Batch of 3 targets.
Target 1
Amino acid sequence: MTAASSATIAAAPAFDGVADDYDASFTFSNIGRAQRDVVWQRILSVFHAGDHILELNCGTGQDALFMVQAGMRVTGCDASPRMVECARRSVAAKGVAREAEFHTLATEELCILPEQGLFDGLLSNFGGLNCVSDLSLVACEAARRLKPGAPLLLCLLNRVCAWEIAYYLLRGRVHKAVRRCGGAVIAQMGEHTFPVQYPTVAELRGIFEPEFRIVALTGVGITVPPSYCESWIARWPRLLRGMKAIDDQIRATPGIRTLGDHILLHVEKRA
């Protein structure tokens, strides 16, 4: 195992431990649905029926299932064996297992994924790339695996999250309020720890150029709060609907769009 691959592999046991409850605690939660809907809308606008999509950090397979049900074919990878098991169960339960295959594979080890021809697009959702120490490895392998002009949707945790700063400052937890601002932290999930990076959009642009260009930026979770606010927001469904409506209006606004919980990059491989 190389030093580069150790970051994502280090996170795998932590996600093994939450895999069975992940959909209940996030995917199907009020906040989870609100944030994921933004990504799904963009998926339908840039990927098309018949496309073969490469998905990195596929998790429990809910994004893969959505794409398959929209007529796409998916090859998904995740470093967590338990997440991959959940993904396989998800598509099998809906009778579409033939349209999605999953590999237990760290993102940095994409080079050992069996060759399947060039992919029509690539998806990485909800912060999986934040667990990658060297994103240049991802950019290099994606350039080799994707067709010219192929779109990539990359959803990462933001460097600056206005909600998180306000949430923890009001509780007097200054260190946690600004934890992302330094660009890297050691995250803890249960008994497991692993490094997490928070690259800026400028840093991501530098990593993915010249093979790729950024087409659009979308904020995810600007007024909609992060997932750890679920128990609170669940008591105020009308408030959440109002927050979603505001996000619909401002999520593409320069300056504001980079203050959300996540940032969604629509990237394109240059011809």
Note: Confidence is low (pLDDT under 50) at residues 1-5.
Target 2
Amino acid sequence: MGLTNTQSNSAKIVTIVEGKFSIRLADDSDNTKAVERTLKKGKNAGKVVKELHYTGIEGKIQSCYVDESDFGANFITVMEDDEGSKFKLQMPLDSQFFSQYAKRMPNIDRTQPLFLGLGFDREKGRHFLFARQNGEKVLMKFTRDNPNGIPEPTVKTVQGKEKWDYSEQANFLYEVAMDFSNFEVGHNQEDKDDIPF
């Protein structure tokens, strides 16, 4: 089952906020399950918004793409639940959640429903994303013990201080995500052939 609580057929936008999958509601919403949150960044800082929060989502992947906006680049996964409702899961490309998702993409069967969950690692003090299909964990293809081609982070000196540089890894995972996004090859190629330049 997906995230929907209403009968609307339009795709709901799902983001990750403070370790929860989140759907923003209208300001005048009277949904009793709504959680209020005060925005901390941007031109709307200080505004109180209403959201529905979830620890897991499940659906069949319909399509994936990168969306560029003034706020940065997001990887969008359009999913449809078993009731026919659609939602768009949005993850910033520079987030740990996108990295954890992309590392699993080669092991995801797009013909089967996918469950994505969010947990909290008490030792590391941070949230993490996990995945399951058919009751089994979807393991990462790219790990420290089995890199399978993912570049190692490097150390760079920035303003006299040494810092870890993950840019090569980020580019590698971006390419993995682009390969994962192209499962509708026939449609995408036909659309590209129609472009007159």
Note: The longest helix spans residues 167-181.
Target 3
Amino acid sequence: MYGLVNRGVQQLVESQFGAAAWVEICAEAGVNPAGFVAMESYDDAVTYRLVGALCAHTGLTAAEALETYGAYWVRYTATQGYGPLMSSAGRTLPEFLSNLDAMHSRMSATFPDFQPPSFQVEVVGPNLLRLHYWTHREGLAPMVVGLVKGLAERFGTTVEITMDRRREDGADHDEFLIHHGG
């Protein structure tokens, strides 16, 4: 994952638990607390170790930590220069979710080794979406839940999200049902 992701973890930890917590989490994860270069690619294992150390430090489960981070990621990336790109991806939650792959495609020019997930939105009914999520990375479905919640906040709407299909149960991808306020 790119350093931008790990810097987001750092900012989340420092904003919610303090700078000393970040130093302790980095020590637990075997990571230099000086930080990450946003545009540099790091082994995914670094991010997973940071999340594991965050869980050990806070008592959060991995799912809770990833969901919290997903919601934070929406706010964080908007402040890191990606707000205009996010704004161009849609003016509503359904529109934005439908344009995630296109937005990731545009980002590929900036991040040459970028390996984004893929999303597909299916309209199931009024204010009900099915979000299909494919990734080669394991265990990140809770982050998607947080991302959707963070996006709902960004768009000033409400959401209820439940997992409908899980890779961990043998499906080829994860699926979420999203009830949104419109």
Note: The longest helix spans residues 62-88.
